[in-house]
Amino acid sequence: MKWENWFSIDWQQVLGISLSAIGFYAGLMLFTRLMGLRSFSKLSSHDFAMTVGIGSILASTVLSDEPSLLQGLFAVAILFLIQGVISVVRRKIKPLKSLIDNQAIILMAHGEYLEDNLKEAKLSTSDVQEVLRKNGIKARTEVFAVIMETTGDMSVIKSNDVEPDHALFDDIRDSELLLGSIKK
Fold first, then answer.
1. What residues does 147 pair with on adjacent strands?
2. Worst-scoring range by mean pLDDT, 42-51, 106-115, 131-140?
3. What are the tens digits of pLDDT across the range 161-177?
4. What is the DSSP letter of 33?
5. Domain residue ranges of the chain, discontinuous segments joined by +
6. 117 in helix, strand or coil?
7. pTM for the whole thing?
């Protein structure tokens, strides 16, 4: 590749990229309206995979001749269809939900690190400490729980005088470590 090619573009390329981007954008808006906003949420690992996949297809479709706009839109339509099927399966067939989704895991409970869970999540205490600092935590005693969510995000729940709602924690592995001392 010649150096000058890095800084060149002709009117045909401008037109092709513009039309592809507009067509792809219109297709994404249509698919999102049909399948719902869940399509771009980051609630689970398969949602994240969907977003990455669409981004990759978008880049390939808009910036090159292959795949064509229709091929790119067809590939995205298939991703939306797969995600729709997975969403239905997750809601309707509970045993398969655990095979499809990651399970949230407690990394810290009542200010104490859960070393086995940290090891399983392949995290260190300093990883959790960073998240605590970003959430304005000044002492471990302020922490009710740190939970690694199904997406890999970490939720920090501060200790306070409010009794925890058990329903908020029942889908988390080892939730009894948070709620065990509280009467149900």
1. 106, 155
2. 42-51
3. 788 888 888 888 888 88
4. H
5. 7-98, 102-179
6. helix
7. 0.69
Query: CA 72 → CA 12, 37, 57, distances in Å?
Result: 20, 20, 6
14/18 Cα distance (integer angstroms)? 6
Compute the distance between CA of residue 145 and CA of residue 78 in angstroms, rounded to an integer.
Answer: 39
Q: How far apart are CA 112 and CA 97, in angstroms?
A: 30
User: Could you tell me the end-to-end alpha-carbon distance of the chain, in angstroms, rounded to an integer?
Assistant: 68
Give the per-residue pLDDT at 143: 94
Q: Residue 95's CB: how many other CB atoms inside 10 A?
A: 6
Which fold, 102-179? Answer: CRO Repressor (3.30.240)
Which residue is it, tokens 């095979």?
Answer: 99
Report the SS3 class of residue 80.
helix
Q: Tell me the two tokens of residue 14.
A: 């401008």
Contacts of 68 (CB under 8 A, 6+ apart): 61
